[in-house]
Design brief:
heterodimer, A: 145 residues, alpha+beta, Aldehyde Oxidoreductase, domain 3, seven-stranded mixed beta sheet, 7 strands, globular, B: 73 residues, Ubiquitin-like (UB roll), 5 strands, 16% helix
Amino acid sequence: MLELYEGPLHVEEIISRWYGDVKDKNFGAFIPFIGIVRDEQGIDGLSFDIYEPILKSWFDGWQAKANQENAMLLMAHSKGDVPNHTSSYISAVLSPQRKVGLRLINDFVEDFKASAPIWKYDLIDGKRVYAKNRSMPLGGAGLLA
Amino acid sequence: MASVEFLGPIGKEPMEVDIQNLNELKAIFSDDKSLKEWLDICAIAVNDSLVDSLDIKIKPDDKISLLPPVCGG
């Protein structure tokens, strides 16, 4: 399940709802990862653009991979502005056993950073500044150069 | 005409192009100064699938997307 929201995530609502939805599905492990925007380098927050068609197909590919291990993935992400000390990203793995879940959440979040079509901007003095130095080129980058 | 969209921070309006393959798009973009800083680092998708060859045939209703480096979370 993939959920996108304008602005910061309502973490308590999302986590509580996910837990309520899955607690009777006989998964032994529910492993969430919650990203919190840090106050660093003078930013007021972060801002995000998302290209939803490719994000959805990327997520569906991972969901199929998780399902092969009898696991399931959940993810929520913000669009637009997200102030410091609020959250823009939650992902979670549900799995029968802890070890599979811990491996999956690590691999999923790593590939999310490298492959999900999401662009990050620092919010500085009310302006969006593309976080170019922290961004990673997608596979095949430079084809038209 | 195929459509071309420039995603994320590129900040360029979408355009339409009459091309048969991505080699022709590369030639069109080679004179575009607004794309100079982006072409080296952008991945290309055709109809929302990333591609890795300039020889891919482009049809008139295809959608081509330029995707700059990403950083979610």
